[in-house]
Amino acid sequence: MLKIDLATDWQVSFGSPVGQPTSATASKLLWTDDDGLTLMQYGSDTEIEYQLQFWDEAVALIDPQQKTIHMHALSPDSTPATLEHLLHDQVFPRLLAHEGQLVVHAGAVAIEGRLALFLGESGLGKSTLVASLYQAGASLLGDDALLVSADHGSFYGQSLYRGLRLLPDSLLSLFPAQTETRPMAHYSSKQRLTIAVPENQNTSPQQLGALFFLEPPSSDQEITLRRMSPAESCIALIRNSFSLDPTDSLLARGKLQQASALANQIPSFALSYPRDYASLPQVHAKIRTQMAECLPRKTDTDSL
């Protein structure tokens, strides 16, 4: 089982189907996406339970009052690794978001004491870029889900768990001597790497430095960084954040306020680069230069 950095009082069980939620006298389809992810609501307004179904692979039965999650497979091909992956990469981030917290689908590393967050659609290389920065000396937070919080005008990030998931070509290129891996899920060729986290490594929330939204490579294969407007960044943050129930208007308004505040405070950049391992050192250099430029400038009063 992955080690969750964030303390959680949710009780999790795995096993055979347990039937429909215990409070269920009626059900309602809340939403479904184009990929087949579906959320059902059961029970009354005061005793709500949810069934989050992941395609034809697995189901999570969620009881917010009892703080319980039961994961079970729908497909005979689903493995324990598949259920663990869905729990940590999908269920937990969505539950934290349902509690009113801002959880973004992002990879993150610490560079010179500040966090660089990398966001973008699946397949754009977040995990590979984060892994390469980690290999180059940056401190790893994770490559999937990050909890963002605000405190006295500053923003902080904390990973749900520290880990990397890479496709075989990235694994071979970046970690040629890595032997400790395990499957992420039965439907993916990605592998989870065993990451040794030093005991003295900071696991508390760390201050954000910049947001980098990954874009497809340009036709000229140039490495480009473009400053994004707060409005553009806010929309991109909403698009790359987690929700359990996107139809909940109150939570949606709260998320918009959180994303807007973050976009107005933390500089955001659109990052495009050729997807070739040889270009990564140049990409790192641009990211590090931009992170250095985002550091607050000292004034005479800072030394008083």
Automatic annotation (TrEMBL):
Tell me the SUPFAM superfamilies matching this sequence.
Answer: PEP carboxykinase-like (SSF53795)
- InterPro entries from the xrefs? P-loop_NTPase (IPR027417)
UniProt-recorded name of the protein = Hpr(Ser) kinase/phosphatase
